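Sequence, please.
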């Protein structure tokens, strides 16, 4: 027999279990790479062997698989080259540079011998994609082993990856190996590489990199043989003992990641800093005097950034993270970022914060960046803005620029639905503003719907229940519905799948015998709940929240950020909404909609009404 206290505890746990569930618990494919790679720094060619164990956790029988061959994008006539030269607003980092590459400057990626469980397969190269017709079907819940060789030529650095970048970093090795494409409930995602970002299969990587011993290497994962390497890596209790010869083999292991990147340079300076209770942070930059001051200050800021993210957005799960000078701006990879390093302190911290915060959204949650770029960039921008506000406090809303970017996009006439695949936006401007500005605004604006406290708790919950599960928009929706108790499908459907815009206004204010009547109107097609603040002439004020009928409820009052009284819901089919206040008309000075400016209202001129002394009413023409 269960005792009374134990029974109560058991029942409480059972009652709480549904709160921990979310939509994210769907099947995931799995990979396990073992690769040995050798790079020749004289001709920039590399060759490798790989054994890849692929587990089909889907309910489908697979008869072919696909790999990405990203380096083939850096060849004249590639889809990336043509796209860059024909899009309305080319990325200036690419432009027509690919078309002008000489044979010794292009990128190459080729697969040689390839077997499945020791049986030969048919290969069909398709530019930046390789189709592999299997020797035998791969049934559900079964694994198979691929063994293959590959060769490549590192291109002159054009976009993210390559050699000899503008800051003279020798090698930025991202998207460098034949990478298994992801297969999920929508099938294969073997996207051609035209310059956007990535989607990968969860798995474990065991990678050995061999090159001239003068180079220092930074990589995804944890170095296993630091006692043979040195180069700033701690050797522990083992004395440094390098093998004979002028080449070194660097052995890295990374578990539960979906990509592997590395960088190498002869002049890297390597330092480390520990996050208390968290990962080791590694810093790699060119040993150049003018960079030394800012890079010396960077570790302290990044320790605080990781601590804030761990506390407010979820615990970083891996043992290390590396900040590496390289690439062409800033780009995130598992346990590592490539950033340009010749920056002032604010810029260096800013790019480092943004790229490391990607570890939570690109790294741990890992939504499909092709289909949902705003889920990666937007959430990262939101959390990064919060971190930067802690590191460099400034008055005002840290997310205000996101609303400005979204407004600029709408006013440009190039606004496209955020649900469009990242590769297929008509302009780079629309893609960028949608992924970054709209995405951050979308998250921040949710606070106006569910409440700021609920949003913060919901984002922690989202990370906790969806980590390592490739969440989609519905997963964010369901997590926040469970956290808030509200229906949010209307918010996700309208904002993600349309280009409708938001505009509410104050239509009329009229005095009555028993108080004041206020009439609001919806002028835009977009739907939202409405916050109203009424300021009296004596300086006191009262705030109200008008839920949207589709929410089937309303956000709870927040005594810290916005204490309010709830009014009856606005029926979503009604173009106007009328409410009455037990307050004399003559006592009112100002009425303001969205006083905290948490919503993307496109016309602020109709959000505020000033009632001068002696006025008998207000009606908008």
């Amino acid at each position: 027999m269960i005792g009374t206290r134990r029974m109560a505890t058991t029942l409480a746990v059972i009652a709480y279990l549904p709160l921990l569930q979310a939509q994210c618990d769907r099947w995931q494919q799995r990979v396990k790479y073992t690769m040995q790679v050798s790079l020749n720094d004289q001709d920039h060619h590399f060759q490798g062997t790989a054994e890849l164990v692929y587990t089909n956790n889907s309910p489908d029988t697979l008869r072919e698989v696909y790999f990405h061959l990203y380096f083939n994008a850096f060849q004249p006539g590639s889809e990336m080259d043509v796209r860059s030269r024909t899009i309305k607003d080319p990325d200036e980092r690419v432009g027509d540079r690919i078309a002008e590459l000489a044979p010794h400057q292009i990128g190459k990626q080729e697969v040689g011998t390839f077997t499945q469980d020791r049986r030969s397969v048919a290969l069909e190269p398709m530019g930046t994609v390789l189709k592999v017709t299997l020797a035998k079907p791969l049934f559900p819940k079964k694994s198979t082993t691929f063994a293959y060789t590959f060769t490549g030529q590192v291109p002159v650095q054009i976009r993210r990856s390559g050699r000899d970048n503008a800051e003279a970093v020798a090698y930025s090795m991202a998207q460098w190996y034949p990478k298994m494409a992801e297969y999920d409930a929508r099938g294969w995602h073997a996207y051609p590489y035209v310059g956007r970002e990535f989607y990968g299969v969860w798995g474990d990587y065991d990678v050995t990199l061999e090159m001239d011993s003068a180079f220092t290497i930074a990589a995804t994962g944890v170095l296993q043989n630091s006692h043979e390497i040195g180069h700033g890596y701690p050797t522990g209790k083992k004395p440094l003992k390098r093998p004979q010869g002028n080449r070194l083999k660097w052995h890295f292991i990374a578990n539960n990641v979906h990509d592997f990147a590395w960088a190498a340079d002869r002049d890297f300076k390597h330092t480390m800093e520990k996050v208390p209770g968290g990962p080791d942070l590694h810093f790699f930059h060119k040993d150049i005097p003018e960079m030394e001051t800012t890079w010396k200050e960077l570790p302290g800021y990044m320790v605080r950034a990781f601590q804030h993210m761990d506390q407010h957005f979820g615990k970083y799960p891996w043992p290390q993270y590396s900040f590496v000078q390289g690439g062409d701006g800033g780009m995130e990879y598992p346990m590592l970022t490539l950033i340009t390093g010749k920056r002032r302190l604010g810029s260096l911290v800013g790019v480092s914060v943004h790229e490391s915060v990607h570890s939570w959204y690109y790294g741990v949650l890992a939504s499909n960046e092709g289909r949902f770029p705003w889920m990666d960039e937007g959430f990262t921008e939101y959390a990064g803005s919060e971190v930067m506000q802690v590191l460099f406090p400034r008055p005002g809303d840290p997310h205000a620029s996101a609303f400005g970017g979204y407004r600029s996009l709408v006013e440009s006439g190039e606004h496209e639905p955020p649900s469009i695949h990242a590769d297929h936006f008509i302009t780079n401007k629309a893609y960028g503003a949608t992924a970054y500005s709209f995405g951050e605004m979308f998250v921040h604006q949710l606070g106006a719907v569910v409440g700021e406290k609920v949003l913060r708790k919901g984002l922690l919950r989202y990370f906790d229940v969806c980590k390592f599960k490739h969440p989609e928009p519905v997963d964010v929706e369901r997590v926040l519905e469970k956290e808030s108790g509200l229906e949010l499908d209307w918010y996700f459907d309208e904002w993600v799948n349309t280009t409708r815009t938001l505009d509410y206004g104050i239509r009329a204010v009229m005095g009555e015998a028993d108080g004041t009547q206020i009439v609001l109107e919806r002028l835009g097609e977009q739907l939202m709940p409405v916050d109203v603040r009424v300021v009296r002439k004596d300086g006191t004020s009262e705030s109200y929240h008008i839920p949207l009928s589709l929410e089937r409820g309303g956000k709870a009052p927040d005594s810290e950020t916005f204490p309010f009284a709830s009014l009856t819901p606005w029926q979503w089919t009604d173009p106007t909404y009328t409410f009455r206040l037990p307050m004399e008309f003559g006592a009112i000075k100002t009425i303001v909609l969205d006083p905290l400016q948490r919503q993307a209202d496109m016309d602020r001129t109709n959000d505020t009404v000033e009632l001068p002394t002696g006025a008998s009413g207000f009606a908008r023409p």
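DSSP finds ten helices and 32 strands in the chain.
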